[in-house]
Amino acid sequence: MNIRAGLLLATLVAVIPSSAAWAGPADAPAKARILGGCDVAFLVTSTLHDFPGSARCLPFEAVLARAPTGDPVIPSVEVEVPVAGMETRNKSRDGQMREMFRSDRFPRIHAAAHDVNVGKLREEMGKGRVGKATLDLVLRIRDVERKVRATASNLKESGERVVFDLDFPVSLREFDLKAPTVLGIVRVGDKVTVKITFILTVSPAP
């Protein structure tokens, strides 16, 4: 069901953009600390009607460093979404979703990104109102890991605060998840659209 949302994240994971604090190549600090959070929205299709869902990732941290070339990079960032916090405003449907995720054994959806070139992402997202950048994530749902290509957009920077969106589709089938049915008639579609809004705070590393 809304499973993908949590994936996201995602998702995600996606601590990719950089704030003005990391922009200057010469006078910017060698390292910075990133504190992040994110809200997850997902849209699920079915044979009856589409329905939305939401979730929130756990707070996370990452380090912004500088590559030998001088580019700002994030060596590694990990984001987790508790399955118990995913909901679609329908208790019966949410219960089926948790069963599909086997939340008793796999309570969280995990996403990670590695060697993220923040400078490049920031440049691509900064190209006007439609600026977008691609980001590869490793998404783990239950005990299955898959690579997912996401699109980062809507970058907003204000002082130490950075906000951006990360969008990607998720296929239940690719994660060995069986789409739930209701009364043997209504079946959830294979594709779930996920959108994660990240809110980051960047500050010099202690």
Describe this structure in words.
- Helices cover 12% and strands 51% of the residues.
- The protein has a single domain (3-204), classed as Lipocalin.
- It is built from three helices and ten strands.
- It is elongated and about 55 Å long.
List keywords for this structure.
3 helices; mainly beta; elongated; disordered N terminus; 8-stranded antiparallel barrel; 206 residues
How many domains would you count in the coordinates?
1
The general outline is elongated
Q: How would you name the CATH homologous superfamily? A: Lipid/polyisoprenoid-binding, YceI-like
Unreliable runs: 1-27
Q: CATH class, anyone?
A: Mainly Beta
| Rounded Rg | 18 Å
Biggest β-sheet description: 8 strands, antiparallel, barrel
Mean pLDDT: 85
Count the beta strands. 10
With helices defined by DSSP (H or I, 4 residues minimum), what is the helix count? 3
SSE pattern: HEEEEHEHEEEEE
Beta-strand content: over 45%
| Cα distance spanning the termini | 42 Å
Considering DSSP H and I runs of 4 or more, what fraction of the residues is helical? 10-25%
- If you consult CATH, what is the topology? Lipocalin
Strand order of the largest sheet: 1-3-4-5-6-7-8-10
Architecture (CATH level 2) name? Beta Barrel
| Structural class label | mainly beta
Summarize it.
The protein has 3 helices and 10 strands, in the order αββββαβαβββββ. It has 206 residues and is mainly beta. The chain has one domain: Lipid/polyisoprenoid-binding, YceI-like (Lipocalin, Beta Barrel), CATH 2.40.128.
Task: Show the helix and strand layout.
Blueprint: H1 3-7, E1 32-46, E2 51-56, E3 60-66, E4 72-82, H2 91-101, E5 108-117, H3 118-125, E6 132-141, E7 144-158, E8 161-171, E9 181-182, E10 186-204
Antiparallel strand pairs: 1-2, 1-3, 1-10, 3-4, 4-5, 5-6, 6-7, 7-8, 8-10, 9-10
